Amino acid sequence: MGRAERGADVAGPLAELESDVARAERDLIVASAQRRELARDRARTTERRDALEAREPALRELVLRCRREVVHAPRLAVPDVSRLGPVPESRFELDAYAARLDAVERAVKAVESAYTAPLRERAELRYSLERLAERARANGRSTSPTVRSGLVEAREAVEATPCDVTLARFLVEQYQFLTRDLPTPEGASS
Q1: Predicted confidence (pLDDT) per residue in 116-148, tens digit
Q2: For residue 122, which of 64, 92, 162, 178 has the smallest C-alpha distance?
Q3: pTM of the prediction?
Q4: What's phi and psi for 72, nearest 5 deg?
């Protein structure tokens, strides 16, 4: 106190102490914000993992259905999300876990797409075949034995289980060719 009464500068030690206190307070605020952000990221990652795990049974059923209903079904494995283990606590491990979870999510989408595509194409071929049969009835081509035979052959291919989608596509395209409107002779009035 005596130095302050004599007019000496006493701010040096107090300024340094104030600076240290401010730095410690800032570090505590930053650490608290990082913990909150980590908790939010961990919760989001847990939700994503749980959502992917919940999709697994339906995806496995899709794979079984496709293998039952389609010849030459894809041969992809369904990713097992549980093999990633629990969601980690630390930032570094959580970031690595999230990257692996992204890869699993991409794999799930790829498997889903690969097994859905032949089933969807088969359904589209069925629909196309029915539209073509209607067109053949409308334009009178359905009375032709060749056209009738083409319809039977295409329908059997599309309805077969397991279905050879490549063969079915070919036969539906062939039936489409058979059901087209016949050209009218030039000069004839329609």
Answers
A1: 999 999 999 999 999 999 999 999 889 999 999
A2: 162
A3: 0.74
A4: 60, 45
Task: Quick: pLDDT tens for 55-74.
Answer: 999 999 999 999 999 999 99
β-sheet bridge partners, residue 163: 70
Give yes or no for a contact between 62 and 112, defined as CB atoms under 8 angstroms apart: yes
Q: Is the C-alpha dihedral spanning 146, 148, 152, 155 positive or negative?
A: positive
Write down the pLDDT at residue 12.
67
CB 81 within 8 A of CB 54: no
Q: How do the domains of the chain map onto residue ranges?
A: 16-178
Residues 163 and 157: beta-carbon distance below 8 Å:
yes
The amino acid at residue 31 is: A
Alpha-carbon gap, residue 141 to 46, rounded angstroms:
60
Least Cα distance to 114 among 163, 78, 167 occurs for 78
- CA dist 54 and 114 (Å) reads 19
